[in-house]
Amino acid sequence: MMGQQTGDQASLFYEFRLEDRIPKDHLLRRINVFVAPVLDSVREQLKPFYSEIGRPSVDPELMLRMLIIGYCYGLRSERRLTQEVELHLAYRWFCRLDLDDKVPHHSTFSENRLHRFRESDVFRHLFERVVSACMGTGLVKGEGFAVDASVMEANASRYHGKSPEEIVWAQPERQTRAVKEYLAALEAEAEPNPDRKPPKVISPSDPCSAWTAKANKRVQFGYGLNYLVDIENAVIVDVEATPARTYDEVESTKTMLDRTERRLNLKPKRLAADTAYGTGRFLGWLVGWPWDCTTYSRSRCQQARQWHLLT
Prior knowledge:
Largest sheet: 7 strands, mixed
Oligomer: single chain
Strand content: 5-15%
Helix content: 25-40%
């Protein structure tokens, strides 16, 4: 007999627990195992960046949990992120929000991400704590690393690029946060680097981005997301953002390797990379390492399986 749903009158009482609705093998449950102990120290680290008076703020752990969801599920828009957390039961569970709890306004994320979170370096702190947890469980061996970069499109129109000499930075409409950071970096530069060619075209709204044709074979302004990956279980052990230029991406490898050694005490024996990293300057820097290092190149595998820089 054909059934028919009846919903003429809603129930007066409901028995509902988020904990019972989230599958045991859900991705967020597995992530929460590593995230929960890491976030315990967030309030202590952020305490100096909050005022002693005024109304209580949004819980910083809640905002960080929401941002982790945005990263894991590709929700780049903070407005979209708040909408998804409002509707998705698993997202609410991970953020420790009940069905009646209010989701923070999207503008709250922008203010904290650009000021309080950035000044405190809390994202780097969380990242390294998670890597340390992976090291504790044996997921990171530290014997071999791979390095590569992907391009993220900048929030800048590719039709409005100009030569740096054509832009008058003193104009009021130019005084944005991105422009101020760009000008501050120029002032901090003691002397120009002869190996780094100055850009011919920059974006007036986001001058730190680079004019590139790497992503999708389309010319645009973008940033390079550089990753240092432990090859044992493909765990990212360090990351560095740069303009989407090959020179900056190769140079960022030095930063990531030095930082990984200094802060995580990881010194790999070999480094895997593609031909973009096979410059004489970079290979010469690798020779100076206090440990053995081997660089692999895809295009030269037919000539030699591996380059031994130190013999």
